[in-house]
């Protein structure tokens, strides 16, 4: 069995067990295979193993892969978006995880509208408040959500975060919990597209089980599937 197949099987099993531990339906968690810097041949191998959802960080690289593999998969954008790349972000992806400022939201809305599509997005929150991190500060998130809610071509589906790096995944748990509590608060106020729930994009190779225990619906896993990136 290939390494990718074996890794995917192990991760799916760990996702299932983490969900069950938390009393959640394993089907409520989707695995986003993070394929940045990973060759299209390896992505095709993952597709052949039944993995059809991929996350990309770099626009030019993503564009090339999507035009090559398009129909076979669903694509999420999980990297930083410069406003001048908003057109690509708004037209190529099923979900954009990293909206963190109004100017970007407006540009995405405009380009989605021109392309005749409704774009699903998540708002990225800087839960830890680290200065170098992307994401809107928790205390500014509601204002951003309120204005974004007026944009006709965006659907706000939930929240995303990148917690600080920690050796022990247990140390990240409070950041995941804070994101979930924020999302519950905003859901109760009606900021999300669906009344019956919201997406929480959190958890990577080192900590996705903790994230699932805290409510993640989208885990973004790269290294544990494809090995380390060169
Ligand atoms: C690279 C990346 C991941 C995946 O990280 P791994 O540790 O390789 O699983 C997840 N989310 C974002 C935003 C990333 O940039």
Radius of gyration: 17 Å
Strand order of the largest sheet: 7-6-5-4-3-2-1-8
Count of all domains = 1
Named CATH topology: TIM Barrel
Task: Determine the strand fraction and express it as a percent band.
Answer: 15-25%
Topology, number of strands: 8
- The first-level CATH class is given as Alpha Beta
Tally the helices: what do you get?
Answer: 9
Hetero groups in this structure are: pyridoxal-5'-phosphate
Find the CATH superfamily.
Alanine racemase
What is the helix content?
Answer: 40-55%
Mean pLDDT: 96
The succession of helices and strands, N to C, reads HEHEHEHEHEHEHEHEH
- What is the 3D form? globular
CATH architecture field: Alpha-Beta Barrel
- List low-confidence stretches: none
Find the structural class using helix and strand composition: alpha/beta
Straight-line N-to-C gap: 23 Å
The biggest sheet, with number of strands, parallel, antiparallel or mixed sense and barrel status, is: 8 strands, parallel
Overview of the molecule:
This protein has 230 residues and is α/β, with parallel strands linked by helices. It has one domain (3-226): TIM Barrel. The chain is 42% helix and 17% strand. It is built from nine helices and eight strands. The chain has helices at 3-21, 40-48, 59-69, 86-92, 102-114, 138-148, 173-188, 208-213, 223-226, and strands at residues 30-34, 53-56, 74-77, 95-99, 119-125, 154-161, 199-201, 218-221. An eight-stranded parallel sheet has the order 7-6-5-4-3-2-1-8. α7 (173-188) links the parallel β6 and β7 (199-201). It is globular and about 50 Å long. The two termini are 23 Å apart. The mean pLDDT is 96. Bound molecules: pyridoxal-5'-phosphate (PLP). Residues 34, 36, 57, 78, 162, 204-205, 220-224 line the site of pyridoxal-5'-phosphate.
């Amino acid at each position: 069995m290939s390494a990718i197949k074996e890794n995917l099987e192990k991760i799916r099993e760990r996702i299932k067990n983490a969900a069950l531990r938390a009393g959640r339906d394993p089907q409520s968690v989707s695995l986003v295979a993070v394929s940045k810097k990973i060759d299209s041949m390896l992505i095709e191998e993952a597709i052949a193993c039944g993995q059809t959802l991929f996350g990309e960080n770099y626009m030019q690289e993503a564009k090339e892969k999507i035009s090559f593999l398009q129909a076979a998969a669903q694509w999420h954008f999980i990297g930083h978006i410069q406003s001048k790349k908003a057109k690509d972000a708004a037209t190529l992806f099923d979900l954009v995880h990293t909206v963190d400022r109004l100017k970007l939201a407006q540009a995405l809305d405009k380009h989605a509208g021109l392309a005749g599509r409704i774009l699903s997005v998540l708002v990225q929150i800087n839960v830890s408040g680290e200065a170098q991190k992307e994401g809107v500060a928790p205390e500014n998130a509601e204002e951003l959500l309120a204005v974004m809610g007026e944009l006709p071509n965006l659907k706000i589906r939930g929240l995303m975060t990148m917690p600080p790096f920690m050796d022990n995944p247990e140390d990240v748990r409070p950041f995941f919990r804070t994101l979930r509590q924020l999302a519950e608060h905003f859901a109760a106020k009606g900021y999300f597209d669906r009344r019956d729930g919201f997406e929480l994009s959190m958890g990577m190779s080192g900590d996705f089980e903790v994230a699932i225990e805290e409510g993640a619906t989208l885990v973004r896993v790269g290294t544990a599937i494809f090995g380390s990136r060169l």
